[in-house]
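Lecture notes, unit on protein representations.

Consider one protein chain, 175 amino acids long.
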Amino acid sequence: FGYMFIVLGIVWAASGAVFSGVWLVLIGILITGSARAATVQTNVTSRLDGIKVGDVMDENPVAIPGTTTIDRALEEFFLRYQWSWFPVIDGGGRFLGMVIRDQLEQIPETDRASTTVSEHLELNSRAFHISEEALLESLLGNPDMRKFGALMVTSHEGQLAGVVTVEQLGRALRP
């Protein structure tokens, strides 16, 4: 249909109705581009059809216990792994939220030994998780996934079950 508009626009432009012909060509290009985008989106969603987040997640995420002091977290987790964030869990393995290295480093060194990471969770960090039963296509365009490049995966009981990254999502999209 878009190609038909383009051809018709060229014919109109050649017969003297240049303004109308150019507009028809532009409309045809727009329709053709939209049709291609819809085809690509259909192909992507059909590849992800039925795949759950739990099927592609890393089942052994490194997490910081909420009772860990900030100085210990900086030394044993952030320095060791060189990541900018970590999930925080309670004693039962339930996901509490995310902790960000830059925020912890802003805490005065004198307070780091007496303050726990659970006291400095990222605002709204409970939003940075998804159920292991959620469909993988629900991650496409997820703003929380864009912020950290990953989302924590939780079970129905709120346990930290894993982590799903942008790279894992990309691998699932490959044919």
